[in-house]
């Protein structure tokens, strides 16, 4: 027999409100930061465990969502529904908003993409032959920053 010595739990009360029908299942992400809840309102909600804040609603099922399970690595959430389907939801790592081409770096390719939004084929917006801080100033002015 093993005796667990985890100490007395300190109960903490947090009410997570937002679903528009009964809640049928909940699941913690493996890292313990997110709680997913499945509801008869056909949605899954994701909650920040520590703050209780609802930060995302997953739409896709066409009937009650009845159970949930995270993959062990936390990258996928599986949801089962009375609509006869199981949906797999992939969690992507947070992306830097300036990394427009999604290669994981803020670099010249991203500047080129920004320039193309202004109708330019090069990020050398002021035409002095090099990509430099003056071009960033022009971009900032365009953005109204
Ligand atoms: Ca990039
Ligand atoms: Ca320039």
List the helices and strands and how they pair.
Blueprint: E1 23-28, E2 34-39, E3 43-48, E4 54-59, E5 65-70, E6 76-81, E7 86-90, H1 108-117, H2 133-143
Antiparallel strand pairs: 1-2, 2-3, 3-4, 5-6, 6-7
The protein binds calcium ion (2 copies).
Count of folded domains: 2
Computed over alpha carbons, the radius of gyration is 23 Å
Large-scale geometry: elongated
Pairing-aware structural class of the strands and helices? alpha+beta
Report helical residue fraction.
Answer: 10-25%
Count of alpha and pi helical runs? 2
**Average pLDDT:** 88
- In the predicted model, the low-confidence regions spanning at least 5 consecutive residues are none
Biggest beta sheet attributes: 4 strands, antiparallel
Portion in strands: 25-35%
Distance between the ends: 65 Å
**SSE ordering:** EEEEEEEHH
Largest sheet, order of strands side by side?
Answer: 1-2-3-4
Ligand species: calcium ion
Q: Tally of extended strands? A: 7
Question: Mind explaining what this structure looks like?
Answer:
This protein has a four-stranded antiparallel β-sheet, with no helix packed on it. Strands 5-6-7 form a three-stranded antiparallel β-sheet, with no helix packed on it. It has 145 residues and is of the alpha+beta class. It is built from two helices and seven strands; from the N terminus they run βββββββαα. Residues 99, 101, 103, 105-107, 109-110 line the site of one calcium ion (CA). One calcium ion binds next to helix 2.
